[in-house]
Design a protein that fits this description.
The structure is a single chain. With 282 residues, this protein is mainly alpha-helical. The chain has one domain. The protein has eleven helices and five strands, in the order H-H-E-E-E-H-H-H-H-H-H-H-H-E-E-H. The strands form two sheets. A three-stranded mixed β-sheet has the order 1-3-2. Strand 4 and strand 5 form a beta hairpin. The longest helix has 20 residues. It starts with 29 loop residues before the first helix and ends in a 5-residue tail after the last helix. Bound molecules: zinc ion. The site of zinc ion (ZN) has 7 residues, from helix 4 and helix 7.
Protein backbone atom coordinates (compact mmCIF):
# COMPACT_ATOMS: atom_id res chain seq x y z
CA UNK A 1 0.00 0.00 0.00
CA UNK A 2 1.31 3.33 -0.98
CA UNK A 3 1.36 5.35 2.15
CA UNK A 4 0.68 9.01 2.15
CA UNK A 5 0.83 11.61 4.77
CA UNK A 6 -2.70 12.92 4.74
CA UNK A 7 -3.17 11.33 8.08
CA UNK A 8 -1.23 14.15 9.64
CA UNK A 9 -4.65 15.68 10.10
CA UNK A 10 -5.38 13.12 12.69
CA UNK A 11 -2.27 12.10 14.42
CA UNK A 12 -1.08 11.84 17.90
CA UNK A 13 1.59 9.33 16.97
CA UNK A 14 3.64 12.21 15.74
CA UNK A 15 3.77 13.80 19.11
CA UNK A 16 6.66 11.90 20.51
CA UNK A 17 8.78 15.00 20.21
CA UNK A 18 6.24 17.29 21.77
CA UNK A 19 7.62 20.42 23.30
CA UNK A 20 5.28 22.50 25.45
CA UNK A 21 6.58 25.71 23.96
CA UNK A 22 5.29 24.58 20.58
CA UNK A 23 1.78 23.75 21.77
CA UNK A 24 0.25 26.93 20.39
CA UNK A 25 2.64 27.50 17.52
CA UNK A 26 2.05 26.67 13.89
CA UNK A 27 5.05 27.62 11.79
CA UNK A 28 3.18 26.92 8.56
CA UNK A 29 1.21 29.56 6.71
CA UNK A 30 -2.36 29.12 5.52
CA UNK A 31 -0.95 28.85 2.01
CA UNK A 32 1.37 26.07 3.19
CA UNK A 33 -1.72 24.12 4.26
CA UNK A 34 -3.11 24.54 0.74
CA UNK A 35 0.16 23.40 -0.85
CA UNK A 36 0.43 20.36 1.40
CA UNK A 37 -3.22 19.50 0.81
CA UNK A 38 -2.83 19.69 -2.95
CA UNK A 39 0.06 17.24 -2.83
CA UNK A 40 -1.77 14.80 -0.62
CA UNK A 41 -4.92 15.04 -2.75
CA UNK A 42 -2.83 14.22 -5.80
CA UNK A 43 -1.50 11.11 -4.07
CA UNK A 44 -4.99 10.01 -3.13
CA UNK A 45 -6.22 10.57 -6.68
CA UNK A 46 -3.31 8.52 -8.00
CA UNK A 47 -4.18 5.55 -5.80
CA UNK A 48 -7.67 4.44 -6.82
CA UNK A 49 -7.06 0.94 -5.50
CA UNK A 50 -6.89 2.12 -1.92
CA UNK A 51 -8.96 5.28 -2.39
CA UNK A 52 -11.63 4.64 -5.05
CA UNK A 53 -13.38 7.97 -5.50
CA UNK A 54 -17.11 7.52 -6.09
CA UNK A 55 -18.20 8.82 -9.47
CA UNK A 56 -21.78 9.92 -8.85
CA UNK A 57 -22.13 13.60 -9.79
CA UNK A 58 -25.76 13.72 -8.64
CA UNK A 59 -24.98 12.41 -5.17
CA UNK A 60 -21.86 14.51 -4.82
CA UNK A 61 -23.70 17.62 -5.94
CA UNK A 62 -26.49 17.00 -3.45
CA UNK A 63 -24.13 16.50 -0.51
CA UNK A 64 -21.96 19.43 -1.54
CA UNK A 65 -24.78 21.90 -2.06
CA UNK A 66 -27.20 20.74 0.58
CA UNK A 67 -24.81 19.93 3.46
CA UNK A 68 -21.14 20.74 2.85
CA UNK A 69 -21.58 24.31 1.56
CA UNK A 70 -24.35 24.89 4.09
CA UNK A 71 -22.02 24.07 6.99
CA UNK A 72 -19.26 26.14 5.38
CA UNK A 73 -21.63 29.11 5.25
CA UNK A 74 -21.33 29.47 9.02
CA UNK A 75 -19.52 32.74 9.77
CA UNK A 76 -17.42 30.77 12.25
CA UNK A 77 -15.65 29.15 9.30
CA UNK A 78 -12.92 31.72 8.79
CA UNK A 79 -10.39 30.36 6.30
CA UNK A 80 -12.74 29.70 3.39
CA UNK A 81 -11.22 32.68 1.57
CA UNK A 82 -7.86 30.85 1.40
CA UNK A 83 -8.69 27.17 1.76
CA UNK A 84 -10.17 25.34 -1.21
CA UNK A 85 -12.99 23.50 0.49
CA UNK A 86 -14.09 20.40 -1.33
CA UNK A 87 -15.77 17.13 -0.44
CA UNK A 88 -15.03 13.73 -1.95
CA UNK A 89 -16.69 10.37 -1.41
CA UNK A 90 -14.58 7.20 -1.20
CA UNK A 91 -16.44 4.15 -2.48
CA UNK A 92 -15.62 1.65 0.26
CA UNK A 93 -18.73 0.22 1.94
CA UNK A 94 -16.65 -1.57 4.56
CA UNK A 95 -15.04 1.50 6.04
CA UNK A 96 -16.92 3.70 8.46
CA UNK A 97 -14.68 6.70 8.50
CA UNK A 98 -14.04 10.22 7.30
CA UNK A 99 -10.91 12.30 7.24
CA UNK A 100 -9.63 15.72 6.29
CA UNK A 101 -6.42 16.89 4.72
CA UNK A 102 -4.86 20.33 5.11
CA UNK A 103 -6.16 23.20 3.06
CA UNK A 104 -9.79 22.20 2.65
CA UNK A 105 -10.54 18.68 1.42
CA UNK A 106 -12.85 16.35 3.30
CA UNK A 107 -13.19 12.65 2.39
CA UNK A 108 -16.16 10.57 3.54
CA UNK A 109 -16.39 6.81 3.02
CA UNK A 110 -19.57 5.24 1.69
CA UNK A 111 -19.41 2.80 4.60
CA UNK A 112 -20.02 5.65 7.00
CA UNK A 113 -22.72 7.21 4.83
CA UNK A 114 -24.58 3.90 4.57
CA UNK A 115 -24.53 3.52 8.34
CA UNK A 116 -25.77 7.03 9.14
CA UNK A 117 -29.44 7.76 8.75
CA UNK A 118 -29.96 11.52 8.83
CA UNK A 119 -28.58 14.59 7.17
CA UNK A 120 -27.93 15.96 10.64
CA UNK A 121 -25.63 13.06 11.45
CA UNK A 122 -23.64 13.52 8.25
CA UNK A 123 -23.54 17.28 8.78
CA UNK A 124 -22.09 16.65 12.23
CA UNK A 125 -19.29 14.51 10.80
CA UNK A 126 -18.63 17.05 8.05
CA UNK A 127 -18.53 19.87 10.57
CA UNK A 128 -16.04 17.88 12.63
CA UNK A 129 -13.73 17.37 9.65
CA UNK A 130 -14.02 21.01 8.60
CA UNK A 131 -13.01 21.94 12.14
CA UNK A 132 -9.82 19.86 11.84
CA UNK A 133 -9.01 21.87 8.71
CA UNK A 134 -9.96 25.25 10.14
CA UNK A 135 -7.94 24.65 13.29
CA UNK A 136 -5.06 23.41 11.15
CA UNK A 137 -4.48 20.40 13.34
CA UNK A 138 -2.29 18.82 10.67
CA UNK A 139 0.29 21.52 10.48
CA UNK A 140 0.15 22.10 14.23
CA UNK A 141 1.12 18.44 14.64
CA UNK A 142 3.84 18.84 12.05
CA UNK A 143 5.18 21.83 13.92
CA UNK A 144 5.44 19.74 17.06
CA UNK A 145 6.95 16.81 15.21
CA UNK A 146 9.57 18.71 13.31
CA UNK A 147 9.94 21.18 16.12
CA UNK A 148 12.67 23.67 16.56
CA UNK A 149 14.95 22.29 13.87
CA UNK A 150 12.50 23.00 11.08
CA UNK A 151 11.54 26.30 12.61
CA UNK A 152 15.16 27.39 12.62
CA UNK A 153 15.89 26.10 9.14
CA UNK A 154 12.97 28.06 7.72
CA UNK A 155 13.78 31.20 9.69
CA UNK A 156 17.43 30.99 8.69
CA UNK A 157 16.44 30.38 5.10
CA UNK A 158 18.78 27.44 4.64
CA UNK A 159 16.00 25.06 3.64
CA UNK A 160 13.66 26.88 1.30
CA UNK A 161 12.11 23.67 0.01
CA UNK A 162 11.21 22.42 3.47
CA UNK A 163 7.49 22.27 2.74
CA UNK A 164 7.97 20.15 -0.34
CA UNK A 165 10.32 17.85 1.51
CA UNK A 166 7.80 17.38 4.27
CA UNK A 167 5.09 16.52 1.80
CA UNK A 168 7.39 14.10 -0.03
CA UNK A 169 8.71 12.35 3.04
CA UNK A 170 5.69 11.87 5.20
CA UNK A 171 4.69 8.33 4.38
CA UNK A 172 2.43 7.59 7.24
CA UNK A 173 -0.71 5.52 6.84
CA UNK A 174 -4.04 6.68 8.11
CA UNK A 175 -4.72 3.47 9.95
CA UNK A 176 -1.69 3.90 12.17
CA UNK A 177 -2.63 7.28 13.45
CA UNK A 178 -4.97 8.63 16.04
CA UNK A 179 -6.29 12.05 16.72
CA UNK A 180 -5.15 13.66 19.88
CA UNK A 181 -7.95 13.87 22.35
CA UNK A 182 -7.69 17.65 22.55
CA UNK A 183 -7.97 17.97 18.77
CA UNK A 184 -11.03 15.71 18.78
CA UNK A 185 -12.69 17.77 21.50
CA UNK A 186 -11.96 20.97 19.64
CA UNK A 187 -13.34 19.53 16.39
CA UNK A 188 -16.52 18.34 18.14
CA UNK A 189 -16.95 21.70 19.82
CA UNK A 190 -16.47 23.62 16.58
CA UNK A 191 -18.77 21.25 14.67
CA UNK A 192 -21.40 22.16 17.24
CA UNK A 193 -20.75 25.87 16.72
CA UNK A 194 -20.89 25.64 12.91
CA UNK A 195 -24.10 23.63 12.92
CA UNK A 196 -25.80 26.13 15.20
CA UNK A 197 -25.83 28.40 12.14
CA UNK A 198 -27.45 25.78 9.92
CA UNK A 199 -30.74 23.90 9.58
CA UNK A 200 -29.13 20.92 11.34
CA UNK A 201 -29.06 19.78 14.95
CA UNK A 202 -25.82 21.16 16.40
CA UNK A 203 -25.02 17.95 18.24
CA UNK A 204 -25.22 15.82 15.09
CA UNK A 205 -21.62 14.73 15.46
CA UNK A 206 -22.59 12.44 18.33
CA UNK A 207 -25.29 10.51 16.45
CA UNK A 208 -22.77 8.18 14.84
CA UNK A 209 -21.28 7.26 18.19
CA UNK A 210 -24.67 6.81 19.78
CA UNK A 211 -25.80 4.53 16.98
CA UNK A 212 -22.64 2.44 17.28
CA UNK A 213 -23.09 2.26 21.01
CA UNK A 214 -26.72 1.20 20.73
CA UNK A 215 -25.88 -1.35 18.06
CA UNK A 216 -23.21 -2.88 20.27
CA UNK A 217 -20.42 -2.15 17.82
CA UNK A 218 -18.16 -0.02 19.95
CA UNK A 219 -16.11 -2.87 21.35
CA UNK A 220 -16.28 -5.45 18.59
CA UNK A 221 -16.49 -4.32 14.97
CA UNK A 222 -13.23 -4.06 13.05
CA UNK A 223 -14.44 -1.30 10.78
CA UNK A 224 -15.41 0.65 13.84
CA UNK A 225 -12.12 -0.08 15.53
CA UNK A 226 -10.41 1.66 12.62
CA UNK A 227 -12.57 4.68 13.15
CA UNK A 228 -11.86 4.77 16.84
CA UNK A 229 -8.14 4.49 16.26
CA UNK A 230 -8.36 7.80 14.47
CA UNK A 231 -11.24 9.33 16.40
CA UNK A 232 -10.85 8.10 19.96
CA UNK A 233 -12.91 8.13 23.14
CA UNK A 234 -16.49 7.77 21.87
CA UNK A 235 -18.16 7.64 25.28
CA UNK A 236 -16.57 10.83 26.54
CA UNK A 237 -17.32 12.56 23.28
CA UNK A 238 -21.00 11.65 23.45
CA UNK A 239 -21.10 13.12 26.92
CA UNK A 240 -19.30 16.29 25.89
CA UNK A 241 -21.53 16.95 22.89
CA UNK A 242 -24.64 16.17 24.92
CA UNK A 243 -23.49 18.78 27.43
CA UNK A 244 -22.99 21.34 24.64
CA UNK A 245 -26.58 20.76 23.57
CA UNK A 246 -28.06 20.88 27.05
CA UNK A 247 -26.13 24.00 28.01
CA UNK A 248 -27.28 25.77 24.84
CA UNK A 249 -30.98 24.94 25.16
CA UNK A 250 -31.24 22.16 22.58
CA UNK A 251 -33.33 19.18 23.51
CA UNK A 252 -31.23 16.13 24.25
CA UNK A 253 -32.04 13.53 21.64
CA UNK A 254 -30.57 10.28 20.37
CA UNK A 255 -29.91 9.17 16.86
CA UNK A 256 -33.19 7.28 16.49
CA UNK A 257 -35.36 10.33 17.05
CA UNK A 258 -36.68 12.17 14.02
CA UNK A 259 -37.02 15.65 15.46
CA UNK A 260 -35.54 17.91 18.11
CA UNK A 261 -36.69 21.01 19.92
CA UNK A 262 -35.03 24.36 20.28
CA UNK A 263 -36.62 27.52 21.67
CA UNK A 264 -39.95 25.72 21.75
CA UNK A 265 -39.82 24.93 18.02
CA UNK A 266 -39.71 21.34 16.80
CA UNK A 267 -37.29 20.75 13.94
CA UNK A 268 -36.51 17.90 11.60
CA UNK A 269 -33.40 15.73 11.51
CA UNK A 270 -33.96 15.29 7.74
CA UNK A 271 -34.04 11.53 7.76
CA UNK A 272 -36.40 11.21 4.79
CA UNK A 273 -34.20 13.53 2.75
CA UNK A 274 -31.17 11.48 3.71
CA UNK A 275 -32.82 8.22 2.68
CA UNK A 276 -34.17 9.53 -0.61
CA UNK A 277 -31.21 11.59 -1.79
CA UNK A 278 -28.17 9.89 -0.24
CA UNK A 279 -28.71 6.42 1.12
CA UNK A 280 -30.75 5.25 -1.86
CA UNK A 281 -27.80 6.01 -4.15
CA UNK A 282 -25.17 4.08 -2.17
ZN1 LIG B 1 -11.47 13.89 14.21
Amino acid sequence: MKKIFYAITICSVFIFSTCDILDDINIFSLQDDVILGDQVAAEIAADPYNYPILNDPTLKSYINTRIFQHVLSSPKVEHDDVFQYKIEIINDPNTMNAFAIPGGRVYVYTGLMKYLDSEDALAGVIGHEIAHIENRHSTSRLTKYYGVSLLLSIILGDNPSAIEEIAANLFVGLAFLANSRSDEDEADSDSFEYLKDTRYYPGGVKFFFEKLQDDGYVESNNAVATFFSTHPDPYDRITNVTNFCTNNGYSNIKYDNTTYTYNGVTRSLYKTEYTNNIKSRL
